[in-house]
């Protein structure tokens, strides 16, 4: 069985490990370049991406992460993790670097002006059969632009009943994407009971 690391510098590391373990995957925290060498795939958790970026720099992990991702290691980023996997950022701290690898432009704290945090049900056709995915957004980014090889997996429903701005600027925004072996969500599948997004990631890991 593949070993899935969880980047463990900052963020909701244990929540991801709990879901991965429940699905039968081997999982270890990753804090050093040596630990990164030993995993087959990596989850970048939700948290705070400016802190995560600064810590990857000071732990000497940013370049090793870039090399592994460029070499095809499957990776899944939720929220701050999505920000870390984006090739380009809009908004937020000037000069903030990313691991990159996904041909997407991500806007940090994108939903923040309407509502800092919300929950919403998403259509997510790439997931195994079941109800719409209940998604938790916490000061979430959205994907502003995607390159031609990026698959859009989910958008915020245009008729979100819970939206502060139904039919407004957040409706239809891209919140889940896949680019090759890289997967990213604006929301936190590690915080809800539904394990289908992690299961999708483990399928990607097995394919790779
Ligand atoms: N707002 C955070 C950031 O920009 C991400 C929030 C999250 O991961 N829940 O890093």
Automatic annotation (TrEMBL):
It catalyses: aldehydo-D-ribose 5-phosphate + D-glyceraldehyde 3-phosphate + L-glutamine = pyridoxal 5'-phosphate + L-glutamate + phosphate + 3 H2O + H(+); L-glutamine + H2O = L-glutamate + NH4(+). Its EC number is 4.3.3.6, 3.5.1.2. Signal peptide: none annotated. InterPro entries: Class_I_gatase-like, PdxT/SNO, PdxT/SNO_CS. L-glutamine binds at residues 47-49, 108, 138-139. One of its GO terms (cellular component) is glutaminase complex. Belongs to the glutaminase PdxT/SNO family. In the presence of PdxS, forms a dodecamer of heterodimers. Only shows activity in the heterodimer. This is Pyridoxal 5'-phosphate synthase subunit PdxT.
